[in-house]
Queue: 2 jobs
Job 1
Amino acid sequence: MRHLKIRLLVVIVVLAVLLLSHAFAQSFRGSIRGTVTDPSGGVLPNTKVTAKNIATGLQREANTGPDGGYVIAELPAGEYTVTAQAAQLSPAAQKVEVNVGVDTTANFDLTGIQKVTQQIVVTAENVPLVETSRDVLGQIGAGDVTELVVVNKADLADPIDLEGLRRAERGSVVVSARTGTGISELLAEVERLLPRQERQVTVMVPYDRGDLLSRAHAEGEVLEVQHGQYGTQLTARVPPGLAAELTRLPEPQPLG
């Protein structure tokens, strides 16, 4: 009977040790996994994926395999900014919550680099992504891309937080996709930043074609106006279509 008790005690101790070992192996760790694809939907092998802990700054990296998949394992629980970047494609970043013993999925669909304007959309909870995006753009040689910071979810954000964002990001645009607030301002700012293919013309506009003068003011940039006997000499930068109309004008004739 005594030997039986000893054996039972040994079995219980062994089981306890195994359970404790399993518990320690599972504690405080999680992982991030996913797939990186290109604009056509094809997988992107050998693409660098970086996970950075927002609170501690801990950073881990992995490269995608032949199937475009990656795994960053053994990560302490917490919030991470995960960034994927590949040559000739615009980097992408997202915020991910890593929990103990859980595989968190973070897939990326990279698009072509936009040489005109890099638009960074900010919400009150993902401000660190702004600097992350800038860092990544600098690493791939696109640090000089024109930037427009757009603060979304204005209808949900605290007014004090919004004011702080405006002060931190001069020239940013605050919008709400749900209510439409700030959308017209955003469109105007995007139009202002886009490259303009205007032509500079110097023409004599007859006095009876004031409509063309009005269009030059509305659609282009009027540089100089001189009123003469038969018409108005106009120097302006205007869109190609309007430039063509202005240069086809006949020579002004005396009125009356």
Job 2
Amino acid sequence: MFYFIFDNDLYFPGVSGEPCCQAARSISKRSEDPARSAAVKRESKGKLAVIHKNDIIYIKNMMDQLIKHRSRLLCIGFGIMYFWFGALKFFPGLSPAEALAKATLDKLTLGLIPSNITYTMLAIWEVTIGIFMLLNMPKRWIIYVTILHLLFTFTPLFLLPEATFSDPMYSLTLVGQYIIKNLALIFALLFIMPKEQ
């Protein structure tokens, strides 16, 4: 990416379609003359996007802080997701995954345990994970429990293929896509798993 500097402002090629080299003909690398600098800024308005150097520094510092605390931020994200999704399951009809979850649990238990009981147990499982994550307690065992939960979310692909695949079979439904994205969550959990002492 080419850019040009004028009085601590960075000029990036805009969306006007004008080639960078053509826009460059009207400006120089740096101007010591304030009047010319202002004139060039006015001339280049609409052709180049302007970002102040202080903004670049601020964005970089912010990104550095996010990267520094990325493990904690991942825990917070998992905590919010699990606590929210689990809490909805305590109220019949609120969770959009209720029908799918109950149908899957019926298949897994062979119908021997009432779905209301297994569904409540699932809600407790998810809320517990969420609380531990929000409290920044990602011990190895809670990571294992969370990965186990995510592995169970793949069972509808085999037990309820009509709900997860469309025609042709390799084409996923919205439910199928919702399940497959859990692969990324599993890999994220491996990233925040504490090392063995």
